[in-house]
Specification:
single chain; alpha/beta; Rossmann fold; 2 domains; four-stranded parallel beta sheet; 8 helices; 58% helix; Tyr_phospatase_low_mol_wt; Ptyr_pPase; protein tyrosine phosphatase activity; hydrolase; Protein-tyrosine phosphatase
Length: 206
Amino acid sequence: MKKKILFVCTGNTCRSPMAEAVLKHQSDDFEVQSAGLFAQKGADASEGTKNVLRKKGIPIQHQSQPVTPELVEWADYILTMTSQHKQMLITQYEEAATKTFTLLEFTNEQQREIWERLKTAYADLEEKKSQYLSKNKDRMTEEELRKKMHEHIHKDLENIRHLEAKLGTLDIEDPVGGNVDVYMKTFQQIEKNIELLVKKLDNKDK
């Protein structure tokens, strides 16, 4: 059975239809759709997207559509263009959390692992601060508490800074309003990660 892939961006006229067209062009092994969190229904792909795809010999026939509960249920994987898209979609569709990723997160295991470690480090830091504050707030002055707190969480902050320095962007920036070079840069980023996506999903099925 073919895996069902849903690409999601903002308006479903630039990035997600580009990703949909590239994946359809690269492989026949998937069912593919795209949608936008704030998309109108029935809009064409942007001229920049169509021009870049035409230059690369990739066909596209597209009409925009909004994300719907039916699309979310249909998809085996939901791949967003940015972390913000991902968080907004999960907030709206909590049941999709385990199958929703940014495209770059899904194709780059190392970045995904760093991000998971970073989320755990943030949560642990807040818990450590809360426990320390609860235990010591009545024992010290505000200035002493602030100083001791910093000493108490110093290693945690260093670990977070180290992880943040290793974390690359998980976003594919919106080319809307840009020239052909901007759209081509977006295309190249999407194309590279679609190639990685195909390899990863092909390996999962073996």
